[in-house]
Amino acid sequence: MRNSDKTREKLLSAATEVFWDQGYSNTSLRQIARMADVDVALISRYFGGKLKLFEAALTAGLYWPELIDPDNDPIKVAIAKYTASSSEDHKFSITRMIVMNASDPQVGDMVRQTLFDTLVAPLESRMDGEHGAAQLAMFFSVIIGASVARHSLLMPGMAEVDADTHARQLRYLIDAALQFEISEEPTVP
Amino acid sequence: MRNSDKTREKLLSAATEVFWDQGYSNTSLRQIARMADVDVALISRYFGGKLKLFEAALTAGLYWPELIDPDNDPIKVAIAKYTASSSEDHKFSITRMIVMNASDPQVGDMVRQTLFDTLVAPLESRMDGEHGAAQLAMFFSVIIGASVARHSLLMPGMAEVDADTHARQLRYLIDAALQFEISEEPTVP
DNA sequence: AATATATGTCAATGCGTGTTGACATACAGG
DNA sequence: CCTGTATGTCAACACGCATTGACATATATT
Question: How deeply is B1 buried, as exposed, middle or buried, from its count of CB atoms within 10 A (0-12, 13-18, 19+)?
Fold first, then answer.
């Protein structure tokens, strides 16, 4: 049975899994095709090239409707997303996606732009107070840093601890970030 | 005039600059050779291959004797290093080196190992208290996150501010990280 | 059943890469 | 000056990659 929609789906599914795991430049179309059990040539035919396929896989993994739902606290949703992806073997982690594609300018820009549109901007509109932007930036920086330190660098004191302990560390830093207020120049006595 | 030491130096210098800026996989030997105004073949001859050259460039940029000096507060040195590399157009930043090579397993491991040996281990031996390891890990995670958020993601609230403001943000998070203590399970009322 | 279109298969092409070996040339020691 | 070694130059190789076009076969339409 021949079904183009099905093969499109198989390709996108395999691409999503492997792009989110290995990044753009470290995955070949042949690998994706092998995974999906589909001929390589069909990728270019159906998606129009590697970059287009990546774009599709990127947005496919970034569909987070909970974040937009006005009934939810977006910060809590973001934290929940992080801890979930963290326990699931670090799959579908947006921080991983960022880091793994930071070296490629074209792809990196695409990831950053998508992240900004789907995550930063919605959150930004909900922050209030004079230092809202800074607090949000520090919130993100804390999450990214924790992700890299725990999963990439395997920092002792953060990598080997269980998920609950790590969540407590993260929560601590996030609370600090969200309470940030610009301090004046330190007063010299 | 022919001088092998000089060409070695030129190659290592160019390699250091470009590897620390672009990462391993995004740099070609031909680019380095062009920069150093040296034939490509000499790289393999003098350094034994791309990976060996990268290793040399890595350690060349990671020579930080101030960190070992027992008269200095290592945390302060690390902060100074970060802010210095941050203002100098983000050159020779170890956090950038980590992020830019995270996608390549082999190179990533090398970077992580080198970072651990030259930075984490010396600092770890100086941390005291029950939560020293966790505090150190959180210290690193804060620095890495801030670097990525400011220089890669260009997060509003962190990217456009001047160096002093950013230093204050960083300092705030670092202080929080270093004051971390494991909190017990939240008491349910 | 005959034809047209959609889908899949295969091989080839061009590109960039790191690495190697043969050759040329400059320099040093006799 | 002559010779041997160090250094530099050049071309070629083998590899993996994304992409393309020609062809084959299944499905749909008439």
Answer: exposed
CA dist B143 and B136 (Å) reads 11
Using CB atoms, pick whichever of A142, A155, A182 lies closest to residue B140: A155
Confidence at residue A88, expressed as pLDDT on a 0 to 100 scale: 72
State whether residue B101 sits within 8 Å of chain A by CB: yes
Q: HEC states along chain A?
A: CCCHHHHHHHHHHHHHHHHHHHCCCCCCHHHHHHHHCCCCHHHHHHHCCHHHHHHHHHHHHCCCHHHHCCCCCHHHHHHHHHHHHHHCCCCCCHHHHHHHCCCCHHHHHHHHHHHHHHHHHHHHCCCCCCCHHHHHHHHHHHHHHHHHHHHHCCCCCCCCCCHHHHHHHHHHHHHHHHCCCCCCCCCCC
Residue A23 CA to its chain's centroid (Å): 11
Residue A67 CB partners (closer than 8 Å, separation 6+): A74, A77, A78, A118, A119, A122, A123
**Distance between CA atoms of A174 and A81, rounded to whole angstroms?**
14
Residues shown for chain B: 189
* Contact between B11 and B2 (Cβ < 8 Å): no
Q: From first to last of the 189 residues of chain A, give the pLDDT tens digit.
A: 678 899 999 999 999 999 999 999 999 999 999 999 999 999 999 999 999 999 999 999 998 888 888 899 988 998 898 888 877 777 778 999 999 999 999 999 999 999 999 889 988 988 989 999 999 999 999 999 999 999 999 999 999 999 999 999 999 999 999 999 976 544 444
User: What is the rounded end-to-end Cα distance, in angstroms, of chain A?
Assistant: 82
Name the residue in chain A with its Cα closest to that of B144. Answer: A145
- Chain A partners within 8 Å of B168 (Cβ): 182-183
Q: Which residue has the tokens 């287009």?
A: A52
Query: What single-letter DSSP state applies at residue B33?
Result: H
Query: Are the beta carbons of A92 and A61 closer than 8 angstroms?
Result: yes
Which tokens belong to A71?
């009934």
The C-alpha R_g of chain A, in whole angstroms, comes to 19
Which residue's CA lies closest to nucleotide D26 at its C1' atom? Answer: A2
From residue A149, how far is each of A137, A154, A170, B86 by CA, in Å? 18, 6, 11, 19
Three-state SS at B128 = coil
pTM value > 0.85: yes
